[in-house]
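Budget justification aside, the reviewers requested a transparent look at the raw inputs and outputs of the sequence design task funded under Objective 1. We therefore reproduce one unedited record. The lines immediately below are the structure tokens for a 99-residue chain.
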């Protein structure tokens, strides 16, 4: 999944959203309940509801409760936020022959 490193959802950077979705997916402390979203991001209940709505609108969570992670959300969980290299850098890389 290609994402812009500086993109935001509900005022949160995608890297923070990814961290939250990973926690939910792995079944650790975070769940998609409003109170737990607020605790995870250290925000109030109203802001947590806004973020949940933004995650649903962006397609990362299912619209019905209990909110589940969609395929798009799972894609974000597996995304790495490393900058892509350009063609000039790629051409400079020396390939080592396989023995």
């Amino acid at each position: 999944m290609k994402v812009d490193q500086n993109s935001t959802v509900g005022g949160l950077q995608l890297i923070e959203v990814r961290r939250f979705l990973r926690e939910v997916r792995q079944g650790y402390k975070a769940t998609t309940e409003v109170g737990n979203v607020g605790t995870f991001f250290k925000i109030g209940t109203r802001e947590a509801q806004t973020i949940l709505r933004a995650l649903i609108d962006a397609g990362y969570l299912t619209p019905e409760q209990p909110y589940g992670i969609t395929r798009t959300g799972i894609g974000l969980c597996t995304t790495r936020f490393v900058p892509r290299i350009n063609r000039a850098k790629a051409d400079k890389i020396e390939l080592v022959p396989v023995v």
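The mean pLDDT is 87. Strands lie at 8-9, 12-13. Computational costs for records of this kind are itemized in the attached budget.
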